[in-house]
Amino acid sequence: MTIIDGKKISTDIQDEIAIEVKSIITNNGRIPHLAAVLVGNDGASETYVAAKVKACECVGFKSTLVRMPATTTEQELLSKLDELNADDDIDGYIVQSPLPKHIDEYKVIEAIAPEKDVDGFHPQSVGRMALNLPTYLPATPYGIVQLLERYKIETSGKHCVVLGRSHIVGSPMSILMARNEVPGNCTVTLCHSRTSNLKEFTLKADIIIVALGKPEFLTADMVKEGVVVIDVGITRVPSDKTKTGFKLLGDVKYDEVSAKASFITPVPGGVGPMTIASLLLNTMKASRKEVYN
Q1: pLDDT digits (tens, 9 = 90+) for 82-132
Q2: Predicted local confidence at residue 244, as pLDDT
Q3: CA distances from 126 to 29, 136, 180 (A)
């Protein structure tokens, strides 16, 4: 059994990007610039955005953090996005979620210029992904693809079961695993809360990608020997065995399932670290005008 080390792969990717940025600087080129918009002061969002800003500094990107109060109106936010869309110095930007309840998240996503949509959530980005055209892939699915590729995990002709149909992970993963690419070329089954006899599908799977947000949902009796398991879930649960008073659990009962798996991602340290690495890769694509010339 091989543990897929997302921390190491994320570090490798960031090191590769840093080398490329140094080359850009040496050749008097333009340094990639990523912006982040943070509305309100949600604790988790503050942590995520701080990590993204730090990652930009580490690889040599320029970064801009746009802070707006929780009282910001929807129109005020949309006006700010118009400014970012028009700013030629900014290659890509993200709007950190969750947004305050009075702001329509889908209106915000659609207001981001597709050529700057480094989160890969704009309908145009999703459509191009479905058509297998050059685009920005959503960060978490892009990270999973990188893990599969760099660990040389065979996907062609395999049966991949995706648990969860969210627009952030499950749905795009089903598209990416079925496309005529490497990794890809799987026969994909997308399961969700209305799927009957779920265990029948997981027991036949060569690859299982779990993105449900249900701690330790996938157990050993649901998988076959040699399965590849990608655990996207991460839930904080109380624990009297840690100093913090909580621990992080994935959607997979790791101790059980790892005994049968050929490859498995741990939680934490598996898929999680890849999200920021993927965001940086998308920003580099944006700066090179790889998707939109």
Answers
A1: 999 999 999 999 999 999 999 999 999 999 999 999 999 999 999 999 999
A2: 81
A3: 30, 8, 17
Which residue intervals of the chain bear CATH 3.40.50.720?
139-272
Does residue 89 carry a catalytic annotation? no
- Residue 248: name the closest of 232, 233, 237, 264 by CA: 237
Exactly one of 96, 117, 231, 253 is catalytic; which is it?
96
22-32, pLDDT tens digit by residue? 999 999 999 99
- Would you say how long the chain is, in residues? 293
3-state secondary structure at position 242: coil
- Residue 237 pLDDT > 90: no
Residue spans in the chain of domains classed CATH 3.40.50.10860: 27-113
Arithmetic mean of pLDDT, 181-190: 97
Pairing of strands 207-210, 228-231: parallel
Cα–Cα dist 8/273, whole Å: 9
- From CA 22, how far away is CA 20, in angstroms rounded? 5
Catalytic residue among 52, 62, 116, 253: 52
Kindly name the residue from 5, 91, 117, 119 that is annotated as catalytic: 119
Q: What are phi and psi of 187, to 5 degrees?
A: -90, 120
| Dist. CA 204–CA 186, nearest whole Å | 13
52 carries an active-site annotation: yes
Considering the domain 139-272 in this protein, what is its CATH number? 3.40.50.720
Q: Is 240 a catalytic residue?
A: no
pTM higher than the cut 0.90: yes
- Candidates 3.40.50.10860, 3.30.590.20, 3.40.1190.20, 2.60.120.280; CATH matching 27-113: 3.40.50.10860
Which backbone phi and psi does 280 adopt, to 5 degrees?
-65, -40
Nearest alpha-carbon partner for 31 in 95, 117, 112, 90: 90
